[in-house]
Specification:
392 residues, alpha/beta, five-stranded parallel sheet, four-stranded parallel sheet, 33% helix, 26% strand, binds nicotinamide-adenine-dinucleotide
């Protein structure tokens, strides 16, 4: 019996497991997912948990429920080492797993770019626990503001104006007026900054949609500082390249991601910390190792700019890998990874959004964009649940 070990229970890992099980029976392959949490987390919706719009169960689906019924084992543990030449992985508990095929789908890590004080003094939004931490911290600071009147407690700085930062401030300006009312605080006392080093927030969108997003969020209370980098952070201050210092007791860093250190350092071929892969998503140095999602650097055919690290790509990579695991064991032809782009959508709170969808990049704004964003989440959820019910 072949041993398939899948590292990571995110989009790439779960879809790889589900698809592999459709093609490989339980007598052909034992499939095990190792994940540091017991849940599959819908990270594209974490901003809503951080803002308090949804509950944790909406973004943290029990992994065992999702894949247990199709005879995929779930091990809740943290991967500490991959030994590709020995075909082994080592876990924090001390367990060692031997594999015939490995799927590396560990996602990415926060990139602090070496900015002094940032890692120690900021919150991030990479997991449901992080989102809960942000919500709790903001509420505690608001209580402290009510007690002491210290404006640093009523000031939130979100560093990074990418999709994560922008969607997060959208939730804040939607939800915090309500939170403030309940606490007897005037929402107008709050200052919510979104600081972006580049000339523009969310530069993947056309100018007209960026302006729409900035106008919508500014009207509701977000102050955008663009073209200015964060250069240092302490527990109570954020220093900017312009020389300005923001006094804040809430610093949330959404300034970027980098490849997972375990992948970059394990001995498989890599490019700046992300594994290089073939068109069938096998490591270019170790064909028995497949790599999905943010851990891999994947170029479009003939292109020189890699695909961005998005959930929709991770999910599709997982499916290609699931098919190719069966081909690896049975000797058939491998499928080439050929992604389909359904578009990019950004929520600006619950009732507003922007985006482009479809092959002709149809632009959306306002309620239709919010609806599409909601629909894409429902589509994903029914896809992961549906695949599982289709299993033999
Ligand atoms: P990102 O890298 O896309 O954006 C980070 C932003 O922080 C950049 O605009 C960068 O210029 C800025 N920045 C970097 N250093 C800075 C500094 N010192 N001071 C101020 N700003 C600084 O990161 P992200 O937003 O976390 O997104 C990561 C990936 O996940 C992206 O590929 C994104 O498309 C994807 N994502 C998608 C969605 C969605 O589809 N709705 C939501 C969230 C994330």
């Amino acid at each position: 019996m072949k041993q398939v070990v899948i590292l990571g229970g995110g989009y790439g890992g779960v879809l790889a497991a589900q698809t592999a099980r459709k093609h490989l029976s339980s007598s052909e392959a034992n499939i095990t997912i190792v994940n540091r949490y017991p849940s599959h987390q819908i990270i594209t919706e974490l901003h809503r948990l951080a803002g308090g719009t949804i509950e944790e169960k909406a973004v943290a689906l029990p992994l065992k429920k999702l894949v247990g019924a199709i005879d995929v084992n779930v091990v809740v543990d943290t991967v500490t080492a991959i030994k590709p030449d020995d075909k082994q992985v080592v876990l924090e508990s001390g367990s060692v797993f031997r594999y015939d095929a490995l799927v590396v789908a560990l996602g990415s890590e926060t990139n602090y770019f070496g900015i002094p004080g940032l890692e120690e003094n900021s919150l991030v939004l990479k997991s449901a626990a992080d989102a809960n931490r942000i919500r709790q911290h903001v509420e505690e600071r608001l209580d402290a503001y009510k007690a002491s009147g210290n404006t640093a407690d009523a000031t939130i700085v979100v560093g990074g104006g990418g999709l994560t930062g922008v969607e997060l401030v959208g939730e804040f300006v939607d939800k915090l007026p309500d939170v403030c009312r309940k606490k007897g605080i005037n929402f107008a006392d709050l200052t919510i900054y979104c600081v972006e080093a580049g000339p523009s927030i969310i530069p993947m969108f056309p100018k007209v949609l960026i302006e729409r997003a900035m106008e919508s969020l500014s009207k509701r209370g977000v102050i955008f500082l663009t073209g200015v980098a964060i250069t240092e952070a302490t527990a109570n201050t954020v220093s900017l390249k312009s020389g300005q210092t923001l006094e804040s007791n809430t610093i949330i860093w959404t300034g970027g991601v980098k490849g997972h250190p375990i992948v970059g350092g394990c001995g498989i071929a890599e490019d700046r910390g992300r594994a290089t892969v073939t068109s069938s998503l096998q490591s270019t140095s170790h064909p028995d190792v497949f790599v999905a999602g943010d851990c891999a650097v994947v170029f479009p055919e003939g292109g020189d700019r890699p695909f961005p690290p998005t959930a929709q790509l991770a999910w599709q990579m997982g499916e290609t890998i699931g098919v190719n695991l069966a081909a690896l064991f049975r000797g058939g032809a491998m499928e080439k990874f050929s992604p389909v782009f359904s578009g990019t959508l950004a929520s600006l709170g619950r009732k507003d959004g922007i985006g482009f969808i479809g092959g002709n990049n149809t632009q959306l704004k306002g309620w239709p964009a919010s609806m599409m964003k909601e629909a894409s989440n429902v589509r994903y959820l029914s896809h992961v649940h549906g695949l599982f019910s289709l299993a033999y």
